Amino acid sequence: MTQWGQMGFQDANSPLMEQLIFFHDHTMFILITILSLVFYITILLMVNEFSSLSITESQKIETIWTIIPSIILLFLALPSLKLLYLLDESINPLITIKALGHQWYWSYEYSDFMNIEFDAYMIPSNELNMGSYRLLETDHHLIMPVKTNTRMIISSADVIHAWTIPSMGMKVDAIPGRLNQLNLYSKRPGLFYGQCSEICGANHSFMPITIEIVNMQTFNNWLLNMINM
């Protein structure tokens, strides 16, 4: 059961990730139905000793197997297009955070507040605390309030990176000289991990992302501590 669990998605922590999982299940249902039908028909053709000219050379059959796939593609395309627009939509963000990719670490800047910026480096394996995740824990966490629309602006200082948080359904390229935008909304507090998903060099796998989702009061206290430092 553990191996099967690792093959699935992480528990969704945003409405967008929930929609992505629903779309995945919707698509898999259609694909499994088609494969089952094709397998059933193939078996029937193999065991059937009879043939009919009206089936092997029929304009009606050709018309049907042209129209039905087109309808199936519509059932896949319409939810997909809806999701594409939702992923790019930014709805009245309360906080704006800028993430800048470097070789090989991330730096963060809270644009709405003065003097709040820091670098987040991966913690070496020999310095990890008990219970921490190897190659995923960073020395500074990206702190965000729960149930708050947050705009992330992603860019890079050197090569192309990718800022990715699987549990939130977020993956966007960090490209030098370009600002990419995404909207984050977390449904529950906790620690959530991600990694750079672009092959950006020798230490590509050693620039993790750690987001700590907290309540608004804890976030305000953290802001005051950072401003007073």
Automatic annotation (TrEMBL):
Residues 92-225 form the Cytochrome oxidase subunit II copper A binding domain. Pfam families: COX2, COX2_TM. The chain crosses the membrane at residues 27-47, 67-87. Binds a copper A center. It comes from the Eukaryota. CDD domains: CcO_II_C. GO terms for cellular component: mitochondrial inner membrane. Gene3D superfamilies: 1.10.287.90, Cupredoxins - blue copper proteins (2.60.40.420). Its cofactor is Cu cation. Residues 1-91 form the Cytochrome oxidase subunit II transmembrane region profile domain. It catalyses: 4 Fe(II)-[cytochrome c] + O2 + 8 H(+)(in) = 4 Fe(III)-[cytochrome c] + 2 H2O + 4 H(+)(out). One of its GO terms (molecular function) is copper ion binding. GO terms for biological process: ATP synthesis coupled electron transport. Keywords: Copper, Electron transport, Magnesium, Membrane, Metal-binding, Mitochondrion, Mitochondrion inner membrane, Respiratory chain, Translocase, Transmembrane, Transmembrane helix, Transport. It is a multi-pass membrane protein. It is found in: Mitochondrion inner membrane. NCBIfam families: CoxB. Belongs to the cytochrome c oxidase subunit 2 family. Component of the cytochrome c oxidase, the last enzyme in the mitochondrial electron transport chain which drives oxidative phosphorylation. The respiratory chain contains 3 multisubunit complexes succinate dehydrogenase (complex II, CII), ubiquinol-cytochrome c oxidoreductase (cytochrome b-c1 complex, complex III, CIII) and cytochrome c oxidase (complex IV, CIV), that cooperate to transfer electrons derived from NADH and succinate to molecular oxygen, creating an electrochemical gradient over the inner membrane that drives transmembrane transport and the ATP synthase. This is Cytochrome c oxidase subunit 2. The lineage of its organism: Eukaryota, Metazoa, Spiralia, Lophotrochozoa, Mollusca. The gene is COX2.
